[in-house]
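Pinned message: reference record for 30 kDa heat shock protein
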Amino acid sequence: MYNRENSALNLNTISSDIDIHLTTHGSDWLWAVFSVFALLTVGHTAYLGYSFRKGTKNIVVSVPLLVSIIFTISYFTYASNLGWTSTPVEFNHVTTDEELGIRQIFYVKFVAWFCAFPLVLTMLEYSVGEIGLDSLFSLLTKVLVMNVFVVNYLIGSLIKSTYKWGYWVFGTFGLLLGIVFVGHSLIRSEKKTIFILGLTGLQLLIWVLYPVAWGLSEGGNVIQPDSEAVFYGILDLINFGFLPLLFLVFSTKDEIAHEKTTETPRVSGETAV
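Predicted structure (tokens):
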């Protein structure tokens, strides 16, 4: 009989010198997140095929698909107990019977953020204004400061001493700059609606919670890796899963409406030219 038990941690084992690590319960949750992103990938692929068949010229419809692909791979790796390293903790808020003080650090999620944040920013830029040469510099600036956030958080995760909080400050400063730049673009936009204001506000709120998640997990060692997986998983599902889907609905809604209004049915017996 087929064994449906999650055996990821049995196949991809953790070395004996790491005592603060992911367990099967955390892996089960991560497989659930992986499944959601995989379903989103299938749905976005089908929608992209439908859009191209209808002759859409809106290339932004491919952005949520690319994001979901990135996170499908990322959470497959995360749930499989791969893509990690270990670092001695600064604080002993979370301890085990072994009292080794070595925490498992999953760098795979930072790689996913580095690849996906530019895509999310592209979707936001399109939603608040058409992407062109005038807005290219604005988009590149946002991508730069958000990647400053991601890279500094990754570096800080791998440092034992209190100097890791210096990288947390640098990364958080980059994140806050990104929030300010996005908010500035939204204020200046002529396309802003209550729908876009609400979605962007929720997006920025989720971004603010990433420093909290890092401080409680890789930074302060306050919560277990399983709880860390739940915290980051919820944030990633909203930020990189559901919100890109809603922005996609908005970005294509006007195009579909325009196509319907520009269609002029031929009079009976009229020959098409």
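Pinned by admin. Summary line: The beta strands are 84-88, 102-106.
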